[in-house]
Amino acid sequence: MIQRVLSGRYELEEKIGSGGMAEVYKAHDRLLARPVAIKILHEAYRSDVEFIERFHREAKSAARLSHPNIVSIFDVGVAGNDHYIVMEYVQGATLKKKIQDEGPLDLLTAVAIAKDIAQGLTHAHANNIVHCDIKPHNVLMTDDGHAKITDFGIARAVTESTLTYGGSVIGSVHYFSPEQARGGAITPKSDVYSLGVVLYEMLTNRLPFTGDNPVQIAMKHVEEEPISPSRYRPQIPPMLEAIVCRTMSKSPEIRPSSFELVQELSNVEAALSVSNKNDPDATKVLPRTELPSRRAVRQGLGTQAQPEENSPQTETESRPFYKSKIFMVSMVFVLMMGFGVGIFAAVGKVWNSEETVTVPDVKGKQLALARQILEDGKLRVNVAETYDANVPAGQVVSQDPDVGKTVKSDRLVTIYVSKGGEAIDMPDLAGLTKSAATERIQKLGLNLGSVYEKDSSAEPGTVLSHDPTMGTKINRGQVIDLVVSRGEPKVETVEVTQKVTRVPNVENASLDVARDGIEGRGLYVGSVTSQESTQAEGTIIAQYPSPDAEVELGSSVDLVVAKRAEPKPEPQTEPVHEHEPEPQRQSTETQPAQSEFPEIPVDVPDREGDRQKER
Fold first, then answer.
1. pTM recorded for the entire structure
2. How many CB atoms within 10 Å of residue 385?
3. Does domain 326-421 have CATH number 3.40.50.300?
4. Runs of H (alpha helix) within 509-593
5. Residues involved in catalysis
């Protein structure tokens, strides 16, 4: 491969890197006489047309970006069977190599690097481009210590085809956002989460989540809270730890935007710089004249200095200043003042120990922020965990002493942090009476939702089914819907006295529960259509006729079921050329990146169709 020339312009010089998807070469651009880096796809991917199209499309989309903290993409092309991307050549190692070589990075250095990455992401997000694979391996360090994000194009192609290509970017799972792990919609906040993981690693030289396989690690991103970085490195200031916790929040709404993150990191950077300047333990260089001799100190303390042998002194000889009486008196005065200041500080400490403070309110706040507020209020913090389905994981549920209490400073305050709802297996409620099922639901810490009636040979009030079904993993506090028996229908009475009925309200219920509720009123389900919605997938978002409408027995009820919203395509862009046009360019239409974990389609059984066949 070396000594080849691509497209008559790019002369390959040496291989400088290799990964699961491509190899990277240092090359010389003959046209512009400059060094460049060229990424060439492995031979294994040449036959996959879909992957190749995505590779070119996303690379061209990323080529629109121009920022000091982003590796520029100059060209995209094909030479024979080789598909390549021409990029800016950066003389330096990756951030991953820097972390491995230096261990936990200096606080100021870690903040500066994170700020560089956040600035690059701010520019990308402003241009509607999400990287989707932020990790130290995709950050290059320049000789002057600045960070540059790379792999914008190939990262997006990979995230759409991971499983198809054998999981060749498994390492990225350590930096996944929870929504990527779930196969949900990717947003700029996904990049912010990944940057939070990178910052965590820079500060502690540890990954927040590890496991035996990629799926296990991905689920930890979804379900578990990382260990506080200050546990590994107590020197991390609360202000910086709060940023790490916010960026790694399970909820994208809590995370800052990339622009807000730049501002927050700038504040921490300024605070750390000032702290370093004012650090009394920092190394300082003092002039030699500022350091008195031991003999002068002894004289200042009143010790009689012994004349040196063979060095007689006469009163008429001029003495150095440090041997003068003025200097001795000054030293005694300084020592006395220092002794007095020490006594004053000790007394002040005892005095301050009796100082009282009011306990601030930290309920509902993230752990790191709550800790910072209490410590700033001259209080010590003890953290305990508890299950609470009504409070998001990582937020404070309660505190002891409570809000507004007056306590002595340095008092220990215990804060109880939510672990979310405790996961349990849904029990089988079928066969129980409605009252017994309700009591069981309440004892398990669950909530009773809608109760639908259905004609059945079972005793009236007997639970026939429920949603979620038996064995499903649920959290305490979750809502449970029941379908109970109304008893056997009285055909004679219905035919004589009841020709109309009311349509039950089945909105927000699952399709199976809705069908049971509708059929229990002597109606049947008509058409079932799907519509994009933010509501939980597979639940009813609309029904026709509307709830409580009077209809004749045997009428049909049409249902609309929620489905996941498809991401919208990005606007069309022009292909990138630099000086030399390239014929037959691929389409520059962009497409949002998807997760490395494929979406699992939900098959809604056409039970109505089966009923029609039976009829």
1. 0.48
2. 14
3. no
4. 511-519
5. 133
